[in-house]
Design a protein that fits this description.
10-stranded mixed β-sheet, 2 domains, alpha/beta, ATP-binding, Universal stress protein, elongated, UspA, single chain, nucleotide-binding, Rossmann fold
């Protein structure tokens, strides 16, 4: 479910000190304006060694200076994009993924981060990446914006993965809310991955999933009658099918874990796959 309480009253952006991302800031600023929320830009400095002591080494001070410069650049960018948007900054100590998770879970309606090389699984799965741990643990939706995306020019369509699970219901709720705010459409995709079966049984299974999809959508079409909706049931691998659907989408929305998730994993296998195969921003909903 998405956060809407008074305590979750901002859009949070994780800033990379190496390179301030205009696509990330543009996406976050537009979202803040649509929701009538302020923007907070957060940058964290990982500990140099012992986290129990204040680190005042030259390396630490250099990182702080770099972080302050990156935040100043980010603020200037936001003010160019959205001059009237309230924006604040914060520079904290700690591991970036953990700091972002705590701040997002406590204060944010959603959190936005970027990745320059999402097509490379080694970056996504590296120990230093914030993307997977943040998407897996934050208590609010996490938006991952790919650096190569021209997000402002995408058609008004959000793709949402549906599989009948509770997390996919949360994804549907977010997708409809977001589509209503943007004046966009929702394309709901239920991907069925099963062994080859007889044609009659195959058709019956597809028909049953189509019925379940229509049932799931009906809840949100009644609440958001202004949102155009299409739904389809496809056979194949969920990551492959959703990645194909994302090629000209505004964003792809998925629940943190669906029926395809592995037992014990806090982030489903479909989300893992989409983080380095989707052609648009990926929104993970807890």
């Amino acid at each position: 479910m998405t956060h809407s309480s008074a305590s979750h009253n901002e859009i949070l952006v994780g800033i990379d000190p190496r390179e301030v991302s205009v696509p990330v800031l543009a996406w976050a600023a537009d979202e803040a304006v649509r929701r009538g929320l302020p923007l907070r830009l957060l940058l964290s400095i990982p500990p140099m060694h012992d986290t129990q002591h204040v680190d005042t080494t030259p390396q630490y001070m250099s990182l702080r200076a770099q972080g302050e410069k990156a935040l100043a650049t980010a603020v200037d960018t936001v003010r160019t994009l959205r001059p009237d948007l309230p924006v604040t900054t914060q520079l904290l100590d700690g591991m970036p993924a953990a700091v972002l998770r705590r701040q997002a879970s406590a204060h944010a309606r959603l959190v936005v981060v970027g990745s320059r090389r999402l097509s490379r699984p080694e970056e996504i799965l590296s120990a230093g990446s914030v993307i997977v741990p943040l998407s897996a643990q934050a208590e609010c939706p996490v938006v991952v914006v790919r650096e190569a995306e021209h997000t402002a020019h995408h058609p008004g369509r959000l793709v949402v993965g549906v599989d009948g699970s509770e997390p996919s219901q949360a994804a549907l709720e977010f997708a409809f809310e977001e589509a209503s705010l943007r004046g966009a459409a929702v394309q709901a995709v239920w991907v069925w991955q099963r062994p080859v079966i007889a044609f009659g049984d195959h058709q019956a299974a597809l028909d049953e999933r189509s019925r379940l999809l229509d049932e799931a959508l009906s809840v949100w079409t009644r609440k958001y009658p202004d949102v155009p909706v299409t739904g389809e049931v496809l056979r194949g691998h969920p990551v492959e099918r959703l990645a194909q659907a994302s090629e000209d989408a505004l964003a792809v929305v998925v629940g943190r874990r669906g029926r395809g998730g592995y037992t014990g994993m806090r982030l489903g296998s479909v989300v893992h796959g989409l983080l380095h195969r989707a052609h648009c921003p990926v929104i993970t909903v807890p």
